[in-house]
C-alpha cells in the first residue's frame, strides 16, 4: 500500500535532531516536513528539517527507534513495566523473547534519564525530602537508592545510586540545587552525612577573628548560609527493630525561623518525611526486584538502575496521583510542578522524541562540578580560577559578609 503525504499539522510534535540546527529540539516551529516513506512495508516516515536540510526518521529519539516491534507491543511493554511485572512475565504477556525485554529496558532507561536531565531544570520548589532505600541484587550484592522528592507536587527531582556515603549524599543535594530556582527547604532522616553534605554543597566560608595580637589566625570553616533551612526526623528503634520514639530537630535555620518558613511555604504544620516513605512503598510495588523477599532479583547494576529510572519517568508524567486532584480533574506530579499541562498517554510517551542537547549537558555538568567543589578548597598552584568558580566565590563572600563576626 502506498502511503499518502499526511497533513502538515501532524509534524508539530517532531523536532530537528541536529544539534547545530537553529531549531534543534524545538517542536512546533513548522520546520519539519514530509520527505518519503521507508521500511519493508513503507510504514516508517522520513522527515526533513527545512532549516538545516537534515533528514531523519520519525522514530528517532522514541522508544521505537531501531526496533521491529509494532507500536501496540511497545505500549504493552511499557504498561508491564509500569505495573511491576517481572521480566519473564513481561516476555510471556507481550509474546516476545526475554532478550527483547532486556533490550527494551536498556533503551527506555537511557531515554528516560536523558529526558529527565534536559526537562527538569529551573523549577520552583519550596521543600524537598531526601532519603535512601536499601535494595538487594544477585549474587549477594547491595544497591542503595537515593531519592529527592519535591513536597507538594510529589515530583521526583532526582534518583541516584551508590554506597551510603557523604559523597553520594552531596551528589544528590547538588542535583537538587542545580535544578531549582532558589534554595529549597530540606527534610531528611537522622543520617549524619546529610548536614556535612549540605555544607559541602551550599556552605559559605566563615573567617573568625583572632583574639589579641599573638597566636595563629583561626582557620576558616564552612557554615550554613542564612537561606538554608534543614531539619531531621530521628527514629529510635528497639532491639527488635520497632520504632519506639520519633524526635524532630532543626539543624540549620533555628526552630522559630524554620516553623515560620513551613507556614510561609505551605509545607504543613510539622516536620515529617511521610511523602518520601510513601514513595518508597510505591516504588517497591512497581519494581519487582525491590519487593520483600522476591524471586526476581536483578543480576546487573545497569538493569537495576534502568528499571527504577523508567518507573520514575512514568510516575512523573504518566501516572496521575490521587492527592493532586483539583476537583474532578486528575493530575500528575509533572502537572503539579508545571512541566506538563495534561496527563501523558502511553502512546504519547512512546512517541515522545528525546534528543540529547550537548550544550545543556555541558552547562549542567559545569554547574554540578561547581557545587560539589567545597568553598574552602584552594585552586591548584599555577592556575587561575575559572570565571564560574570566581562567580561562586563572590557569591559566597557576599553571604559570609552578612554573617555576624565573632568578638
State the main characteristics.
single chain; 407 residues; alpha+beta; Nucleotidyltransferase, domain 5; 6-stranded mixed beta sheet; 3-stranded antiparallel beta sheet; 20% strand; globular; disordered C terminus
What can you tell me about this protein's structure?
With 407 residues, the protein is an alpha+beta fold. Among the domains are: 1-58, no CATH class; 122-207 and 220-283, Nucleotidyltransferase, domain 5, CATH 3.30.420. It is built from twelve helices and 13 strands. The chain has helices at 71-82, 87-94, 98-119, 166-178, 193-202, 255-264, 274-286, 301-317, 333-337, 346-350, 358-372, 387-401, and strands at 32-38, 44-49, 55-57, 127-137, 141-150, 156-161, 185-189, 204-206, 221-223, 230-237, 243-252, 321-326, 329-331. Strands 6-5-4-7-10-11 form a six-stranded mixed beta sheet, sandwiched between helices. The protein has a three-stranded antiparallel beta sheet with strand order 1-2-3, with no helix packed on it. Strands 8-9 form a two-stranded antiparallel ribbon. Helix 1 (71-82) packs antiparallel against helix 2 (87-94), helix 2 packs across helix 3 and helix 4 crosses helix 11. Mean pLDDT is 86; it is low at 378-407.
Helices, strands, pairings?
Blueprint: E1 32-38, E2 44-49, E3 55-57, H1 71-82, H2 87-94, H3 98-119, E4 127-137, E5 141-150, E6 156-161, H4 166-178, E7 185-189, H5 193-202, E8 204-206, E9 221-223, E10 230-237, E11 243-252, H6 255-264, H7 274-286, H8 301-317, E12 321-326, E13 329-331, H9 333-337, H10 346-350, H11 358-372, H12 387-401
Parallel strand pairs: 4-7, 7-10
Antiparallel strand pairs: 1-2, 2-3, 4-5, 5-6, 8-9, 10-11, 12-13
Amino acid at each position: 500500500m502506498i502511503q499518502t503525504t499526511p497533513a502538515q499539522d501532524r509534524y508539530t510534535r517532531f523536532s530537528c535532531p541536529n544539534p547545530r540546527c537553529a531549531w534543534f529540539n524545538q517542536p512546533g516551529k513548522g520546520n519539519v516536513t514530509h520527505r518519503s516513506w521507508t521500511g519493508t512495508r513503507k510504514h516508517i516516515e522520513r522527515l526533513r528539517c527545512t532549516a538545516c536540510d537534515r533528514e531523519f526518521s520519525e522514530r528517532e529519539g522514541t522508544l521505537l527507534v531501531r526496533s521491529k516491534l509494532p507500536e501496540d507491543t511497545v505500549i504493552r511493554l511499557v504498561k508491564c513495566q509500569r505495573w511491576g511485572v517481572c521480566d519473564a512475565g513481561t516476555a510471556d504477556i507481550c509474546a516476545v523473547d526475554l532478550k527483547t525485554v532486556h533490550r527494551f529496558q536498556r533503551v527506555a532507561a537511557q531515554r528516560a534519564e536523558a529526558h529527565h536531565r534536559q526537562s527538569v531544570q529551573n523549577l520552583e520548589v519550596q521543600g524537598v525530602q531526601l532519603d535512601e532505600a536499601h535494595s538487594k541484587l544477585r549474587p549477594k550484592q547491595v544497591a542503595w537508592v537515593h531519592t529527592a522528592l519535591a513536597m507538594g507536587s510529589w515530583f521526583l527531582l532526582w534518583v541516584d545510586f551508590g554506597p551510603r556515603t557523604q559523597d553520594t549524599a552531596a551528589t544528590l543535594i547538588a542535583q537538587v540545587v542545580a535544578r531549582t530556582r532558589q534554595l529549597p527547604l530540606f527534610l531528611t532522616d537522622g543520617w549524619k552525612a546529610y548536614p556535612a553534605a549540605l555544607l559541602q554543597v551550599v556552605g559559605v566560608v566563615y573567617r573568625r577573628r583572632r583574639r589579641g595580637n599573638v597566636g595563629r589566625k583561626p582557620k576558616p570553616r564552612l557554615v550554613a548560609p542564612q537561606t538554608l533551612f534543614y531539619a531531621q526526623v530521628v527514629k529510635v528503634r528497639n532491639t527488635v527493630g520497632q520504632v519506639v520514639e520519633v524526635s524532630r530537630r532543626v539543624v540549620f535555620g533555628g526552630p522559630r525561623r524554620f516553623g515560620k518558613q513551613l507556614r510561609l511555604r505551605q509545607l504543613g504544620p510539622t516536620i515529617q518525611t511521610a511523602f518520601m516513605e510513601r514513595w518508597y512503598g510505591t516504588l517497591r510495588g512497581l519494581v519487582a526486584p525491590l519487593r520483600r523477599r522476591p524471586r526476581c532479583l536483578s543480576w546487573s547494576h545497569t538493569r537495576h538502575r534502568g528499571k527504577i529510572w523508567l518507573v520514575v519517568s512514568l510516575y512523573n508524567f504518566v501516572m496521575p496521583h490521587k492527592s493532586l486532584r483539583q476537583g474532578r480533574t486528575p493530575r500528575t506530579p509533572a502537572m503539579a510542578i508545571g512541566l506538563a499541562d495534561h496527563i501523558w498517554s502511553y502512546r504519547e510517551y512512546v512517541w515522545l522524541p528525546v534528543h540529547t542537547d550537548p550544550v545543556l549537558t555541558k552547562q549542567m555538568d559545569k554547574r554540578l562540578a561547581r557545587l560539589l567543589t567545597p568553598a574552602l578548597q584552594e585552586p591548584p598552584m599555577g592556575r587561575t580560577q575559572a570565571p564560574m568558580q570566581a562567580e561562586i566565590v563572590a557569591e559566597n563572600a557576599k553571604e559570609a559578609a552578612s554573617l555576624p563576626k565573632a568578638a
